Amino acid sequence: MRQANRQGEIPVRDLKLPDQRHPEKAHRPDNVQPKKPAWIRVKAPTSEGYKQTRDILKEKKLVTVCEEAGCPNVGECWSHGHATMMIMGEICTRGCTFCNVATGKPQTLDAFEPGRVAHAVAELGLKHVVITSVDRDDLEDGGAEHFAQTIRAVRHRSPDTTIEVLTPDFLKCPPSALEAVVAARPDVFNHNLETVPGLYHEVRPGARYFHSLRLLQRVKELDPTMFTKSGIMVGLGEDRQAVLQVMDDMRSADVDFLTIGQYLQPTPKHHRVDRFVTPEEFAAYEKAAYGKGFLMVSATPLTRSSYHAGEDFARLRAARLAKLGRG
Fold it and tell me: Which residue ranges are recorded for the region named Disordered (predicted)?
């Protein structure tokens, strides 16, 4: 682990990345944003629970993917005290065309952030917490040790809280990066494939489909008891057969939990919405996924990786016990 400096920050490798937000999006052509159908419209957040969660996160100087990615479920989740912590800053080193998180040169890591996350989890009284991050290609280990420190801090402060991580792909990092996160023993290891392989060059140009698939498979090799989870968006231009093939690929990597949600275009500069997938199609995907052997499936227009994560984790654990004949 690198030593922290006097300000509690950990130095990063010098990358030639632009400092301005979303610089790569300025050159993209505008894509018309279609009107959303009734089944994916949500109300603006106004509850006291929402405000309390917002204030606690602000006080602890924490970033959430709920805000940064413009999640449509933020009102519902924050009203119930649920939030997905986004560690390692709010600037990503990649420019995926579906994502609304800022791209550029990140700041140095804050060595005190794991402790602040742990304090927020305790203050919010979370029974289940999801911890994610931006991609940090500027770090030798992709931020893996920072993930591990955050997991350990939450465990120490809130030993009864179950922990789910949603990690980057640790592309070009040594094997020890993934090993460090798994060794910290989160209850759920989530890494999203995001889309079908044929769309990676448009949607995730900095990622590699089979690397991400292998990452999930490797988690199971390192710890067969750890729950693994992955998700994709639909409505980006994929067809049904490609989605079914992704399901097969995930099952070949022994992924336990699949999420499928509707892609929503954040701005005209982002990847276009090809179409809005109907609730009936989502139900058909869910049925097909269970038929392929997933322990848990969430497939609805508003499904996101951490939506109802705590309740789904309880169901996931119960499904495993039932499969083992202990339910």
Answer: 1-35
Q: Model pTM?
A: 0.82
Q: Which residues are annotated as a binding site?
A: 66, 71, 77, 92, 96, 99, 306
Give dist(CA 11, CA 293) in Å, integer: 44
C-alpha to C-alpha distance for 137 and 103, rounded to whole angstroms = 12
Place of tokens 């499936």: 297
Annotation: binding site for [4Fe-4S] cluster: 66, 71, 77, 92, 96, 99, 306
The residue among 217, 229, 149, 151 whose CA lies nearest residue 186 is 151
Q: What is the CATH number of domain 193-327?
A: 3.30.750.200
CA atoms of 196 and 322, how far apart (whole Å): 31
Q: In this structure, which amino acid lies at residue 310?
A: G
| CB-CB neighbours of 237 under 10 Å | 18
- The encoded tokens of residue 154 equal 């939450």
* Distance, C-alpha 9 to centroid of its chain: 24
Block residue for tokens 């629970």 = 49
CA distance linking residue 190 with residue 132, whole number of Å: 9
SS3 (DSSP) at 87? strand
- The answer to whether residues 109 and 9 touch, using CB atoms and an 8 Å cutoff, is yes
CA distances from 82 to 51, 130, 200, 270 (A): 12, 9, 31, 27
Q: How buried is residue 30: exposed, middle or buried, by Cβ count under 10 Å (0-12/13-18/19+)?
A: exposed
Query: How many C-beta atoms surround the C-beta of residue 327 within 10 A?
Result: 9
Name the strand (E) or helix (H) holding 261: strand 257-262
In the chain the first and final C-alpha atoms are separated, in Å, by 42
Mean pLDDT over each residue of the chain, to the nearest integer: 84
Domain ranges within the chain, ordered by starting residue? 1-22+44-186, 193-327
Q: In angstroms, rounded to a whole number, what is the distance separating the alpha carbons of residues 299 and 234? A: 10
